[in-house]
Write a structure and sequence with these properties.
Helix content is about 55%, strand content about 20%. It is an alpha+beta fold.
Length: about 130
Amino acid sequence: MGRWTYLRYTGDMLVFGSSKRGLWEVAEAVSTMLTRDLRLSLKRQATVLAPVTEGIGWLGFRVYPGTTRLDREGRKRFTRKTRRLEMQAASSPQAEDRAVARAASVFGHLAQADTHGLRRSVLDGLQRG
């Protein structure tokens, strides 16, 4: 099967390798194990072989060699969520504490990708607003 590397998070899995044939063999082996041992199956429409230079969608991010970016829908959700949290924070001191804690969580999640510019832009907008 050759050399390969994988990432897994709950039910999602990415497998990286240098050979298409080897990757299809890994997919088949994983499928066989899931069916035999766990009575589960792979979603065939989600089993994709693609060059990493195109980026791989993964948990709301787009993973490229050497960088990870937030995908388009993720950027929209992040922007909407921070605006909503800003409005909630303005309603009362207690709501402000909750909104700040939730915003810290959202910003921490986004810090897992190369999103410094986006986070800075949103914070600058909040401070101006």
